[in-house]
Write a structure and sequence with these properties.
Blueprint (H helix, E strand, L loop, with lengths): L7 E5 L7 H13 L4 E4 L6 H17 L3 E5 L2 H7 L3 E4 L6 H8 L4 E5 L4 H9 L4 E5 L15 H10 L4 E4 L7 H6 L4 E4 L1 H4 L4 H12 L3
Parallel strand pairs: 1-2, 1-8, 2-3, 3-4, 4-5, 5-6, 6-7, 7-8
This protein binds ligand LCLJCK34, the ligand Cc1nc(C(=O)O)sc1CCOP(=O)(O)O and magnesium ion.
The site of ligand 3NM has 15 residues, from helix 8.
């Protein structure tokens, strides 16, 4: 059974920053630096490539006792035995994901900065709420902005872990953690580095904030 504890650094892969040949060493460096969750997020690879990479990443995460989450695709998450899935507002509902994954897997849901979406997700059985984007993001510049007041309110109102995302780095993460975020999700501040030693150092700086 999956231990659903959502806490600490949540690393997310990116096909441009973590291309195939760098994916496993980059992710291993983030895990070695303390990442507690890893999300495979890739909207460009073929179905076969996604299946193969997801299986490899699941095995690697479990070597480090970290949770492995698949973005967007509950069927792939179920197929490779991931610990869970992350879904956005246009990725199919929580009920569909739950039917595929069962009660012991994690379902995380994007709620932007909108407490109404957070309430809906909590009522529908989400395991964590993701809020953002809190800072400028080169990875997803068009993500709707969210403010720290809405993060604080969500952390106070819902008995669920809240993950903060969007332009997060070691310098601004303390603001989110002080507001109550259980976890911060990070792409560029980790995987924007090409040297695994730099990825590990960046992961450790953020992990040590928790
Ligand atoms: C932890 C986390 N939070 C938010 C997102 C964004 O999900 P979504 O809105 O579905 O956008 P895409 O990532 O699919 O572009 C996420 N993936 N992870
Ligand atoms: C995938 C994603 N979703 C966001 C949201 O606000 O929902 S922001 C974002 C990109 C996060 O990457 P970086 O750490 O490089 O800014
Ligand atoms: Mg999505």
């Amino acid at each position: 059974m999956t231990n659903k504890t959502i806490n600490g650094l949540y690393a997310i892969t990116d096909p441009a920053l973590t291309p195939d040949e760098r994916l496993l060493p980059a992710v291993e460096a983030a895990l070695f630096g303390g990442a507690r969750l890893l999300q495979y997020r890739d909207k460009t690879a073929s179905a076969d490539q996604r299946r193969r990479r997801a299986s490899q990443l699941r095995a690697l995460c479990h070597e480090y006792d970290a949770l492995f989450i698949v973005n967007d695709d509950p069927a792939l998450a179920a197929e490779v035995g991931a610990d869970g899935v992350h879904i956005g507002q246009s990725d199919g509902g929580i009920a569909t994901a739950r039917a595929l994954l069962g009660d012991n897997r994690i379902i995380g849901v994007t709620c932007h900065g909108d407490l109404r979406l957070a309430r809906q997700a909590a009522d529908a059985g989400a395991d964590y709420l993701a809020m953002g984007r809190f800072f400028a993001s080169r990875t997803k510049p068009q993500a709707p902005p969210a403010d720290i007041a809405s993060l604080k309110q969500a952390c106070d109102e819902f008995p669920l872990p809240v993950v903060a995302i969007g332009g997060v780095n070691a310098d601004n993460a303390p603001l989110l953690i002080q507001a109550g975020a259980a976890s911060v999700a990070v792409i560029e501040a980790l995987f924007g580095h090409s040297d695994p030693a730099d990825i590990e150092a960046a992961a450790r700086r953020i992990s040590d904030l928790f």
